[in-house]
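Q: Here's a chain of 293 amino acids. Please give me its 3D structure as tokens.
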Amino acid sequence: MHDPHHPVLREATLELLDPQPGAFFVDGTVGWGGHSSALLERGVELWGVDRDPSALDWSRKRLGEGVLLHHATFSQLPELLDGRRPDGILLDLGVSSPQLDRPERGFSFRNNGPLDMRMDPTRGETAAELLVRLDETELADILFHYGEERQSRRIARAIKAGLPFTGTAALADLIARQLPYERGQHPATRSFQALRIAVNRELEELDRALAQFPELLAPGGRLAIISFHSLEDRKVKERFRELSGEGAPVDYRGQPLSTPRFRLPVRKAVKGEEGDPHPRARSARLRVLQRLE
């Protein structure tokens, strides 16, 4: 299992969030506490939010009683804050390495497990139930839009014909039989990503966060989002550019017609480095938005 003590893009995240002693920060995907522990070292007041009860149990032991932890989705943050404004919000999107490494969670086909894929295993629809409920066209659309799978219709047809599945390995084997071999990537990778996103409504969660979180920030506060695939990163990039006024209309002197209330501390995404020991580092993209004073 990957060591959860080492979060992806740790140093870059700290540098761009710029936590100051006494500031109020929210880790909206506290997970196993890697980023949160780094923030606590800077002397901040911290709240943690996560939908996975096992992650919260781990973080509670690691971070101590001084951190307020909430069992919730990060889109529920406006209700949790109840008008309080954080100086920084962090989201580390997608599935965590400890979740992937546990076969009983059903996220990975590396080791056989139940077709679950729920980040919160206490509620909601499992992947197995989703496959039964969707018709062939709906399933193909999910595979295409969330997994960018070009053979989505062929795979969806095979999945519906092959129901029910005994576990993740059987589903992965069936998908692999529909596709040519690709060096370096299992043929089921894109489909499993798509199903996980659909089960957990990840893009809907992100849309709600991008719509609400910038206005939650205190003046000068920063929102940092780490994404791991193009669907997420594209949404973050476009929303941050819109809020910072990049590409907005200008007058004849080239000056913006309206004064933006946000800025980008760095214009381009900070990418994970090859030498980073975190297994997901190569696909990581960090973007930051700051609310102006």
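Q: Can you summarize the key feature?
A: The two ends are 43 Å apart (CA to CA).
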